[in-house]
Design goal:
Layout: H1 4-7, E1 18-22, E2 29-35, E3 54-58, E4 64-69, E5 76-78, E6 87-91, H2 93-106, E7 109-111, E8 115-119, E9 123-126, E10 136-140, E11 147-151, E12 157-162, E13 172-181, E14 191-209, E15 213-231, E16 235-239, E17 252-257, E18 260-262, E19 267-271, E20 275-280, E21 283-285, E22 290-296, E23 303-308, E24 311-313, E25 320-324, E26 328-333, E27 336-339, E28 348-352, E29 358-369, E30 389-392, E31 398-406
Parallel strand pairs: 5-7, 6-8, 7-10, 8-11, 9-12, 10-13, 11-13, 12-14, 13-14, 14-15, 15-16, 15-17, 15-18, 16-19, 17-20, 18-21, 19-22, 20-23, 21-24, 22-25, 23-26, 24-27, 25-28, 26-29, 27-29, 28-30, 29-31
Antiparallel strand pairs: 1-2, 2-4, 3-4
Length: 412
């Protein structure tokens, strides 16, 4: 039994074309084969040696020759071979970053192990500073609560995905089956997961908690976000376009499916100057401010926001605050709005800051309230001052198509 570090040491003289070794970090069997070319077909040389996947040996005459780890060339990179321990004791920051850099350079999927990966600085997967051989990279964990990145200390971004220098030629990128959190009791600080400068990204089965901003898209369009849970942050989500320097796109063509924004201190979700955004079967519950805040400024089309089959309950302020400074259209279809906080504000607020037309379809939504069976907990009491849909602005500019169910006639 020969370990990888032993085989590639200066004391080993084996020059076989194919060798079976034991990985020095994972204790797993692995094959290495001799090669003369790199992953893209170019001639192999010392500049392409990373000491983990592509490795170098010297023959008896002092000439170099090279090996490649065969399981990685299939397209998947297990970060444990870089020394990631995932034991919540050892600091995995450097090992994870080295794995991210190599995966980005070679175009490999990043496989995260089960366990708690302790980090003390931010992790960066950067498509802007180096080209990638393959145009498809995924970060794949072992599932919520199984693969955990736990970031200690005041890190600005726990996991930062930076798009290519030319966003019109993006790689396919996805991140899935992962929990990102901070230790219990630490101050909410920084961003849990930030995706920046991307056309086309996929986020699936991700849980984020205890950050200032849980999930953030900046200069991103055409993204699919599903089964995201962002909770116990100041902002569960905050999406925008950068102003200085000016980003290439406002938030648009974003599809949120089966996501949850729960118990956030300020807002469940915020989208600034967005358009063509859809929330489908998402939950906004127990946020101490607004459940969903959305602003529209008339960029790139007139359709702003669609909400279908979502659930709102227990948000201390409005469930939805929609603000527009341009002609627009929005639609609410088959959503549930349940008030359970005494003295609560209106469910949906539409604030027209301009003198333009606003067209709103509100169809088959259920506006109700909850009566607590426990007499020690006050029930919500309907009030004529708290409308289910509150419009602010010139009433002649508001065109509402309404076919909803209102549990209280006072609020309808």
């Amino acid at each position: 039994m020969i370990f990888t570090d032993e085989f590639f040491s200066a004391s080993d003289s084996n020059t076989a074309n194919l060798v079976r070794l034991v990985d020095s970090h994972t204790n797993e069997d692995v094959n290495f084969k001799r090669i003369t070319s790199w992953i893209d077909g170019t001639a192999m040389d010392d500049t392409k040696v990373d000491h983990i996947i592509y490795r170098k040996k010297m023959d008896s005459g002092g000439s170099p020759f090279y090996y490649v780890r065969t399981d990685v060339t299939a397209g998947d990179l297990d970060v444990r071979i870089f020394g990631v321990k995932a034991d919540d004791i050892n600091d995995d920051t450097s090992a994870l970053q080295a794995a991210f850099n190599t995966a980005c350079k070679l175009g490999l999927n990043i496989l995260l192990p089960a366990g708690i990966m302790k980090t003390t600085q931010g992790l960066l997967l950067d498509f802007s500073w180096q080209g990638t051989v393959k145009n498809r990279i995924q970060i794949i964990g072992k599932g919520l609560g199984n693969s955990v990145i736990k970031n200690y200390g005041p890190t600005s971004v726990a996991l930062f995905i930076k798009g290519p220098a030319d966003p019109s030629r993006p790689p396919y990128f996805s991140v899935s089956d992962l929990t990102i959190t901070k230790p219990t009791g630490e101050t909410r600080y920084g961003v849990g997961l930030l995706i920046h400068d991307f056309i086309g990204a996929e986020v699936n089965n991700i849980e984020i908690s205890n950050y200032d901003i849980g999930f953030q898209l900046v200069n991103v369009c055409n993204a699919q976000i599903s089964f995201l849970v962002s909770k116990s942050c100041n902002y569960g989500m905050y999406n925008e376009r950068t102003i200085n320097p000016l980003g290439f796109t406002y938030p648009n063509l974003l599809n949120f499916r089966n996501c949850s924004f729960l118990g956030n201190v300020k807002f469940g979700a915020v989208i600034i100057a967005g358009h063509a955004v859809k929330f489908d079967s998402c939950g906004f519950e127990g946020n101490f401010g607004v459940g969903l805040q959305f602003t529209f400024a008339g960029y790139n089309g007139r359709e702003a926001l669609s909400l279908i089959n979502n659930y709102f309950e227990g948000n201390a302020n409005h469930d939805i605050y929609f603000e527009t400074s341009s002609m627009t259209a929005l639609s609410l279809i088959s959503n549930t709005f349940t008030k359970n906080i005494a003295g609560r504000a209106s469910d949906v607020v539409v604030n027209n800051l301009s003198n333009d037309q606003v067209y709103m379809s509100s169809l088959s939504n259920a506006f109700g309230y909850y009566v607590n069976s426990n007499p020690e907990i006050p029930s919500y009491v309907p009030s004529a001052s708290s409308k289910n849909i509150l419009y602010m602005g010139d009433p002649s500019k508001f065109h509402l198509l309404n076919n909803d169910m209102h549990q209280s006639s006072l609020e309808s």
